Amino acid sequence: MRTEKSSDERFMKIALRLARLGAGRVSPNPMVGAVLVKSGEVVATGFHRGYGLAHAEVEALKKVDFQAKDMELYVNLEPCCHYGNTPPCTDAIIRAGVKRVIVGTVDRNPIVSGRGIERLREAGVEVTVGVLEQEAVQLNEGFFKWITTGFPFVTLKLAITLDGKIADRQMASRWVSGEKSRQIVHRMRALSDCVMVGAGTFEADNPTLLPAVSRTSLKTPVRVVVSSNASIEVSEKTNLLRTMDRGKVVVACGEGARKERVEALQSLGFEVWLIKEKDGRVDVKELLRSLGSKGLVYVLAEGGAKLASSLIQEDMVDRLVLFVAPKLLGDPKAIPMVEDLGVRALCEAKRFRIEALKKVGEDVLLTLRKGL
Hints:
Blueprint: H1 4-20, E1 33-38, E2 41-47, H2 56-62, E3 72-77, H3 89-96, E4 100-105, H4 115-122, E5 126-129, H5 133-139, H6 141-149, E6 153-160, E7 165-167, H7 179-190, E8 194-198, H8 199-205, E9 222-226, H9 239-242, E10 249-254, H10 259-267, E11 271-275, E12 277-278, E13 281-282, H11 284-293, E14 298-301, H12 305-313, E15 319-324, E16 335-336, E17 352-360, E18 363-370
Parallel strand pairs: 3-4, 4-5, 6-14, 6-15, 8-9, 8-14, 9-10, 10-11
Antiparallel strand pairs: 1-2, 1-3, 7-16, 12-13, 15-18, 17-18
Helix pairs in contact: 3-4
């Protein structure tokens, strides 16, 4: 015999699974799934399909013509109670006659932040909060960071050898990791709002920074090259230039970059951002603040060493993803994964905690989070 707790968790798992279908589609909104249940059976489901489109709760309620008397609604995130691109979900839930709402976690958006739950309870709707809360929080951790701080959630991805090199002394990095690892990277790009590299990686790899997978999304990721002095070399063979019709390409450079270099890039179709400098380089914290202000919630940084070091030094890496290849270079002049971090004692080392470890083809995929 099922208990109420086990039933709640079972249906919340469905809501979470539905919510994940919005990954790469809904940003800067959160991912939300909804499940309508009556007498222990699923009646209707919905998920948020894209920014500006109907929210998950409304999607589900539509399928029962907004007649949900004696039904329970499972939703991984607190229903909204304000007017944005769509009307408040709380109003639709109350009008439909839902008797009980089960919420995964409270929305961290200051406009909501418990008010949706309060509105439902005031209308006589029974509300249960905190079912599979850890999973619900993790699903939308990027949104929660962005909506409360203005900064995007940053994933730093690096493919490295066993001795921590990302390229040989000639800057050749194709390929450090194997094919299966690279397929995962393309999926990571597809789920990101922005893909960012440093000038060295841009010139060495000539990347497109586009996902090579089918992406049913409302937008392609914004591609950013960080070049403090705007001195990147561009020709007709430059892949970012050749694929500019597929989405915005930004060159982020320091405020002191020479005007003629900036204008030359702009004439080719690049969008150039002038960012405050720190120690002669683009201040990555200010760059991330700018990205966040434009609604870019999930940023994937793909190196190289200078950009990686700047992000780590500024404590802006939320997740570190390492594809470790079973290869050794052993060359002191090969390119390391990071440059000098200013650490001179073990007790000062930048600390990460291991979140996941798995074998991918011939490589090992190591996922870490900052701090202990």
